[in-house]
């Protein structure tokens, strides 16, 4: 079997595609984080109850639930190329509209729509990136994809802190997400369609033209490794044997993001509850965001060297213990509190990058977008619920119990990963998607050595 495509060098095309694809998580991190800062001004202006605060914080996550599933289905049916820009155009419009809302109801509605657009982008962008990327770069590039979430979050805290000095600064904060979204739309224009998807649709001439343009004039579908799985429709996904993979991805993804999204939506409030109040809470939130980013970068470095399975298990274990420390010792010295928060942020990185590596590797081309979208949607149920409950838990249960619950959720992710996480390092995309993948030792060793 030819491996011209899977063994291709990393070209400028791949780098640009990775950068443009990562625009979605950048905007996601931005919009989910800046609302926590904006809430400082929104709460007194609209006289929000804890329940309303939770709804505003969780609205985008609820939107992601619907958007990810529909976006995944649409990208499998109509292709990756068209939807790669359309979804972000909708996000620009809704972001600007937030600056003109007059009550909590319309703010919740707009954040639902924004979440819908962001959710739709995830399966579209990651499917396109996975299907173009050579095997040895697939893990690092898909992993690097999620690091942009934390870059967006860090930028949001900086912008938010600056705009807090203005009256009605929260309106500018929420509308500001339109700026990066519009820039990403312009950059994405001209991106070619996935040749794997075109081939599955029987559009061989178009697929060959894309391959020749990206990889060289002599590269055709004959050089694209076949997927060993038989054709699977979304309706057949569970019955065909992929049900356990879907359950694994959904559960570990949920366990990874429930505590993390809660921290981002209400980071300053959580730090204030831990006796780090005032400006220190906002500075601490920004510092922790940097640690999240560092943790993801470290995980990107380790994903091929350490392997997918060990990385996700260790990430869940040690980050869960850090949260447990916060729950058991909420009255500890501020230095200890910040150290435990930083440890959590650094160590959770492995689970974060695997949210995009595993789903794109474990399903065949014809349902890859739908599977990624479905898993993303299902995981957001828990994330939205957790985010909604954070302000209620902080006032009703206290910070210690809240952090212990977050630790339990994280350690559950470790248990599920120990039971079900496969090792896909060194496999072609087709081999990884097969229900019984046959590893290629020589290729795996070469990949592991990178």
UniProtKB/TrEMBL annotation:
<feature type="transmembrane region" description="Helical">
    <location>
        <begin position="17"/>
        <end position="42"/>
    </location>
</feature>
<dbReference type="InterPro" id="IPR005828">
    <property type="entry name" value="MFS_sugar_transport-like"/>
</dbReference>
<feature type="transmembrane region" description="Helical">
    <location>
        <begin position="396"/>
        <end position="421"/>
    </location>
</feature>
<keyword id="KW-0813">Transport</keyword>
<dbReference type="InterPro" id="IPR005829">
    <property type="entry name" value="Sugar_transporter_CS"/>
</dbReference>
<feature type="transmembrane region" description="Helical">
    <location>
        <begin position="311"/>
        <end position="329"/>
    </location>
</feature>
<feature type="transmembrane region" description="Helical">
    <location>
        <begin position="141"/>
        <end position="164"/>
    </location>
</feature>
<feature type="domain" description="Major facilitator superfamily (MFS) profile">
    <location>
        <begin position="17"/>
        <end position="425"/>
    </location>
</feature>
<keyword id="KW-0812">Transmembrane</keyword>
<feature type="transmembrane region" description="Helical">
    <location>
        <begin position="335"/>
        <end position="358"/>
    </location>
</feature>
<dbReference type="InterPro" id="IPR020846">
    <property type="entry name" value="MFS_dom"/>
</dbReference>
<feature type="transmembrane region" description="Helical">
    <location>
        <begin position="107"/>
        <end position="129"/>
    </location>
</feature>
<dbReference type="Pfam" id="PF00083">
    <property type="entry name" value="Sugar_tr"/>
</dbReference>
<keyword id="KW-0472">Membrane</keyword>
<feature type="transmembrane region" description="Helical">
    <location>
        <begin position="246"/>
        <end position="271"/>
    </location>
</feature>
<protein>
    <submittedName>
        <fullName>MFS transporter</fullName>
    </submittedName>
</protein>
<dbReference type="InterPro" id="IPR036259">
    <property type="entry name" value="MFS_trans_sf"/>
</dbReference>
<feature type="transmembrane region" description="Helical">
    <location>
        <begin position="54"/>
        <end position="75"/>
    </location>
</feature>
<keyword id="KW-1133">Transmembrane helix</keyword>
<feature type="transmembrane region" description="Helical">
    <location>
        <begin position="82"/>
        <end position="101"/>
    </location>
</feature>
<feature type="transmembrane region" description="Helical">
    <location>
        <begin position="170"/>
        <end position="191"/>
    </location>
</feature>
<feature type="transmembrane region" description="Helical">
    <location>
        <begin position="283"/>
        <end position="304"/>
    </location>
</feature>
